[in-house]
Design brief:
Chain lengths: ~210, ~210
């Protein structure tokens, strides 16, 4: 099984990578070069670099990765501002990380027969709160896009899985002063994700 | 009452403008200069120009428009491609028209006391269909963003209204070979929208 983890240097991605060690060939993509190399070496996987929100880089990276059987899009950033103060920069940061990167993956990923690709959504009730409009919009865009792509790719035997997670206590939240109360530990989140995805869960998983 | 219609040269925007003639001071914004000038002259309103998806232009335009009591964001484009063929160009076109323009409006519009601002959503069941991923994602982003902005702006006495419409038979659909079967005539759609928005409808209207 060839396993591609996008966002492998993030909190959730790292936890997924560690828990998947020994279950297949690990291909790791992440934004922090040193952490990525160390992780790949530690786990016996390979590392690939590229900005997934850039269409050309995403295309090259996914071509290089080759056909995969299990893919995790564990890419994301957090940001906060009320709508009256939200400009292009925050909107683009949120859309690029959560949505455009996923759209590029859905366009260029090469899937093995029966492949599964996992994306991370949000609970509307948790994120549609003051200050989180840009984040909530980017997640909503991802979720809608995935719903359509799922219908399109089913005929190719590819399963697109949306996993909704409550907040996970990762460095994603550092710019906002730390994770929300009750956030899951990344190891716990990764364990639940793998249990659902490697088991018989449906196309939409709520954890 | 000062009424600002964004997208006033589109099918729905024009119909809204005509039906609002005589109910207040009409400020019209649209992408087709000649049509816009003619319409403003015919209805006794004024016309403003600018690209609403560009933050600087949107800011200047909305400053020039001044405080408004009723605003319609009747801006949109249609586009179609499966996810395996959807690149940056289509994604940006959809996001700019449906979502970024609305975010700029929500940032820069000047609202009178008790103002209402109306945005147009989509029915998930109609748009989350093969080929419409980018369109569906942009509408989903708009809807989520609006839900958050509504909570933020309520304290200022501004009402943000989401109107879900079935397809409207406008030139929006020309690039796709014409409107879907059963599309509403623009005049009929505008009539229903105004009936709901000027009446006692809630924050989310399904027509």
């Amino acid at each position: 099984m060839r396993i591609l983890i996008l966002g492998a240097t993030g909190g959730l991605g790292q936890a997924l990578a560690r828990q998947l060690q020994g279950q297949g060939e690990l291909l790791l993509v992440g934004r922090r070069p040193q952490v990525l190399r160390d992780l790949a070496q530690e786990l016996g996987g390979s590392s690939l670099r590229g900005d997934l929100s850039d269409e050309l880089e995403a295309s090259a990276l996914l071509e290089q990765a080759g056909p995969v059987d299990l893919l995790f899009h564990a890419v994301g950033v957090a940001g906060r501002a009320p709508a009256r103060e939200t400009g292009r920069q925050l909107l683009e940061a949120m859309l690029s990380a959560h949505f455009l990167s996923a759209a590029n993956v859905l366009k260029y990923a090469r899937f093995g027969q029966g492949a599964r690709a996992v994306f991370f959504g949000a609970y509307p009730a948790y994120v549609r709160v003051p200050g989180f409009g840009a984040y909530a919009a980017a997640k909503a865009a991802l979720e809608a896009y995935l719903e359509v792509a799922r219908k399109e790719l089913r005929k190719d035997g590819v399963r697109l899985i949306l996993v909704r997670l409550p907040a996970v206590a990762t460095p994603l939240w550092t710019p906002l002063g730390g994770p929300p109360r009750g956030a899951l530990a990344p190891e716990e989140a990764a364990r639940k994700v793998l249990e659902a995805v490697l088991g018989d869960a449906g196309d939409e998983v709520a954890l």
